[in-house]
Amino acid sequence: KVFYPASLLEEMCESSPSFSSAEDLVEAGFFPTTPITYTEKDAILYALGVGATERKYVYENHPDFAVLPAMIFATIFKGDESSKTLPFPPPQLLMDLDIFKGKVIIDAERSMEVLKGPLPVRVSLSDKWGMKTRFTALTPKKAGLLVETETLIVDELAGDAVLRLTNSLFFLGKTDLDAAGSPSKIKIAVPDDQQPDHTITEQT
């Protein structure tokens, strides 16, 4: 398998065959893999940014220093070096294809499934980690189009998929595509015998 830098993926999207239907997008399968890198500093900045207070997530010398699994979503917006941030929309969101251009985009829903963990505290280019994304469903709505994608985080050296990310975006005013693919049904498994760890009651 070949890793493509983000700039090359952008060029490939621009020069790829024109997608004229929702079925074309779903049948295209996974787009090229792009590399993932992050450092301990990246992990700490993400943890602080989302309000984490446990020392193992915000102090690199903690004996149990760890990376919040959700940080992997942030790597979609990073380049192939730790210091880079990609312009919006980043290539792996697949929003910059001609078929979508010119529409207002609303972020909808995200979920993550850990297939192999925990995440390492740093990943460099030599580790050959990458992400690849495909369209899984396009569903017309009254006000626009709901687009769902699946992103796999892969460890190429080990040959393993590490995480599976599902993303959905709403393209306001996009009404010229038919339905295609299988819409996801995100389910949260909660043990029947487990009581809530914390509850909040608000009067309305």
Automatic annotation (TrEMBL):
Superkingdom of the source species: Eukaryota
GO cellular component, one term: peroxisome
Example of a GO biological process term: fatty acid beta-oxidation
UniProt domain Peroxisomal multifunctional enzyme type 2-like N-terminal: residue ranges: 37-173
GO molecular function, a single term: 17-beta-hydroxysteroid dehydrogenase (NAD+) activity
SUPFAM superfamilies xref list: Thioesterase/thiol ester dehydrase-isomerase (SSF54637)
Protein name in the entry: Peroxisomal multifunctional enzyme type 2-like N-terminal domain-containing protein
